[in-house]
Amino acid sequence: MYKHAVDMQFVKTFLLTYQSFTTPESLLMKLIERYNVIRPVGMPMKNFSMFRTTIQVRVVNAIKLWMETGREFKDNAAMQENVLAFINDTLKYDHPLHCRSLRTALLVVKGVASKKMGKTFSEQPPAIKYPRKTGSVLSLFDFDPEEIARQLTIIDYSLFMKIKPSEWMNQVRMQYHI
């Protein structure tokens, strides 16, 4: 009948690539249209209730994931207003718990609330290897090579994380158009 398993990798990939065939505004409107699912002809009402709830929860989760991972909502007041209208006009009546999580994601996008970051690593980082000699003047050779590599990696990581996934996708598209 209807698959209940959600392929989150598919949803993430879709949200990364959809701009090659539609706009963010159009996708948001289509997701909201999908939320308002119509009962298929011949489907019993008892089956439709579960079918509708499954689709609605998936749509809300997709919008929430999109808001958390994408940048399209950050500086787009119209999209933020459309999501807020969806929350206030529809979602708060159908799924109050999901309404709260989507509203929180919207507040994070607007910069009103902060996203709580969990622990990233499962173990403690290695101990810092301090310079071999102490004093006011140190040279590069006074530091352990592994510690230099570790610090450079941390700097590179912070720069790398500033690259938006959509920028990677645009770069790939540009290479094929050349």
Characterize the structure shown.
The protein has 178 residues and is mostly helical. It has seven helices and no strands. It has helices spanning 8-17, 24-35, 45-69, 77-94, 96-110, 145-160, 165-177.
Key words describing this protein structure:
178 residues, 7 helices, mainly alpha
What is the element layout, followed by pairings?
Elements: H1 8-17, H2 24-35, H3 45-69, H4 77-94, H5 96-110, H6 145-160, H7 165-177
Helix pairs in contact: 2-3, 2-4, 3-5, 4-5
What's the rounded overall pLDDT mean? 84
Total helix count?
A: 7
> What can be said about the biggest beta sheet?
none
Q: Low-confidence spans: pLDDT under 50, at least 5 residues?
A: none
Offer a quick outline of the entry.
The chain is mostly helical and 178 residues long. 61% of the residues lie in helices and 0% in strands.
